[in-house]
Amino acid sequence: MFERTKETKVLRDPIHGYIHIRYRVIWNCLNSREFQRLHRIHQLGGDFQVYHAAEHSRFGHSLGVYEVCRRMVTEVDSIAGALSESEKIAVMAAALLHDLGHGPYSHFFESIQDISHEERTMRIIADPASEVHQALTAEDEKLPQEVIRILKHEHQRPILNQMISSQLDADRMDYLLRDAYETGTSYGTFDLERVLRTLRICDDMLCVKQSGMHSIEDYIMARYHMYWQVYLHPDAKSYEMLLATFFKRYMEINEPIEVFEPLRHPLSNEEFFLMDECRMMYGFQCALNSKDAILRDFADRILNRRLFAWIENPNEDQIRQLEERLKDRPYYLIEEPEHKGSFLPYSEERSKIWILTNRNELKPLSQCSEIVRALLKMEDVPEKRIFYPKDIAIH
């Protein structure tokens, strides 16, 4: 029997109204220093440079994912009845802790440290020295490994894996609504209440009643539009390119800035804990006094939003002009790593959203939805952008 808090803890939230915490282990994980660190990590990387209100943190998002998951295991009768209390605790803890490994500016940080945020998260949870590990083992010594199995998508109960990471999971359901709200856009909105109301469990898999299919279609399109209007915004990417180029230059020169020196080698968990955006900003301020003109310039651009211009899918003549004009400034023509242009809103290659039909049959969403069938025919066309200083004019 897992110990409950003396009373239900509630935290006000702009998306879910209230976050409800009833178990001591969840409350203790929330109060661990590793989780509190997420206050100091932006949820949306460089998007706050475009959408000025997008200052929300990984902390708020992680709480939101927990709340969606909590509602799944307590309010969806078929799920609540299929899981034991320990399984509910494990999946709620996984929801809360799934982003512990995010570095400064979220996904950007993975480009300068050769470790994914998922792997870092699991290392923190497994580390006996971490407060979050201690909070979990205080309830059940096996709980850290149960949480890690869910995060690795290796738990013996497929439903637990799906609730955290799948085409229809608590993570996406929170970040779409939260990011839309914080950016002041409407692209990411969908009917969360209807989705939750029509969720079911069948053959230990998450599925949706056929009557809820249209809400799932809205959810899929919300994700598609958010990627192109918010997550892949070229000015947000320009900011992240400045960050990446700053650190590329820093690693190539022999001029130490104390707060950045740990980045020259793989970070320990303790070093990672200290690497937050407050530290980054202080480092950029220090770099304004660097002897290196390139480092000074990029620090100034980062701190004062002097973004590069950009061209999407440049032609050969545009590339030739820029290469000629910037031949003596090698850091000032940046090509973004190629991404898929259409960013397909839905794919069934790795996982599917399952529909429980009116005949009580389990079918992939694509077999039930005309809209999704059309979406699956979209071509995955690679696209790229190049970035360069705005004072360089090209024809």
UniProtKB/TrEMBL annotation:
Domain called HD/PDEase: residue spans: 54-185
Name of the protein in its database record: HD/PDEase domain-containing protein
Parts forming coiled coils: none
GO molecular function annotation: dGTPase activity
Protein's organism: Catenisphaera adipataccumulans
SUPFAM superfamilies, per database record: HD-domain/PDEase-like
A Pfam family assignment: HD
Transmembrane region(s): none
GO BP: any one term: dGTP catabolic process
